[in-house]
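[INFO] parsing input record for Equilibrative nucleoside transporter 4
[DEBUG] input buffer:
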Amino acid sequence: MSSIGAERRRPTPAQTPEEREGGVVQSYSFDSYQLEEEEISKDAPERGVLALSEPDFEEPIPDDRYHGIYFAMLLAGVGFLLPYNSFITDVDYLHHKFEGTSIVFDMSLTYILVALLAVILNNVLVERLSMHTRITVGYILALGPLVFVSVFDVWLARFTTGQAYIINLVSVGVVAFGCTVQQSSFYGYMGMLPKRYTQGVMTGESTAGVIISLSRIFTKLLITDERKNTLIFFLVSISMEMLCFLLHLLVRRSRFVRYYTNHAQGKGHDPRDNGPGYRVHHDVTTEEGNGATGPSSTEEGVEDFVGGTYVRFDAPKAKIRRSWPGVRDMILHRYVVSRVIWAYMLSIAVTYSITLCLFPGLESEIRNPTLGEWLPILIMATFNMSDFVGKILAALPYDWSGGRLLFFSCLRVVFIPLFVMCVYPAGAPYLSHPAWPCLFSLLMGVTNGYFGSVPMIQAAGKVPPEQRELAGEFFGDCLQSVSFLISVLHVAHCVCMSSTAFLCSLQETP
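[DEBUG] output buffer:
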């Protein structure tokens, strides 16, 4: 007889007299097994109970083979900025078609106002609608206006100038809603994945600008007819957006993405998890030379005692979980996350505030007698390409503190007076040579790409995995709030300038 079978065991309280004469007792408990495990481990030597836990089989971490997931995430960043960039980058076509209007400014204002509403709504729905549902709806809303405007306005020209003006603004509003929902959701999405993929999405945002700028330059160079080159320009944008959408649908089902998102949402298997599970409890009480079979039990939750083995299954207690959290819980959750990442949020807010003061509004208005309409196109292309470089540099392994990031982000305010000197005074600016705005745009793009990515990349590691989606949503809220504030300042400036001009005209009138 084995050593285990030969040892005399003291019966556990759960055993019946018949069971103590039997062979093996197995207890399967599906709830609160940690407490049982602790108690058994304390008096196991005294009781002689052999307690065996089922081994934890942790799922191996999937590998991003051939960097396919990273490439898809880079294109995801392209996908939620490409539609809006498509509308504002063909600035030459807009100025020609809507001559004498502030179409670019109106598009920017429309985008920012709608985007603010969208990000607030998305933040409310983050715990009510699934992340992939929000992203899919965003793609559909972004693609629809692109197709509509390119077919009915640019190609078929079915509308008058006034109608086309309104339709373009409405289209930008729909794009703003869809792309903002995408962007905020993707920020939360990337927070669940390793830091490298957050940097990939941020790089994709700059890639969108590079692709659109190069597309506009080549279509304008190769095709002289403005209507045809604009149509081809929009078709390239539509094709890229559809590619981004299809890749998202494929990647979301991959083992790599499901592994990280399930773990971040608490759905994955975690050996340290204290949630409900089962424990196998073996209590061997063998009478010497007696392998008799005990009687069967008819009590609820107890199987027949057959062949010397008594098996009991303890079902877990029912747990009621609300799928719609209360307002107080939502506010408290957000407060806890914001206390951890506030410096990173403020840093990225300052970075984008300075950039939005100058791009695309002021940069699109810089003119030169020699280059004409080509100068704003070149300036925007320079900014987009240097922004792309800055976001690649953000992948360098350097750990920034929130305070230092905020300090260097504030230093970028020097770009505002430099760009003002490129347009003021009107007609003969202090820095009139076209090289100056291109140089400033280059430096502003690199710093925007770097300090606009690093806070988001590093903030994800400051919060637990289950809070990373919400942290990403916070950055989306922060960006859109900054955009709204800048828009309000722009509108106030325009109103003041118009009022001043009107008062001057009244004073000059005899």
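[INFO] The chain has two domains: 3-53+278-314, 65-264+323-508.
[INFO] shutting down worker
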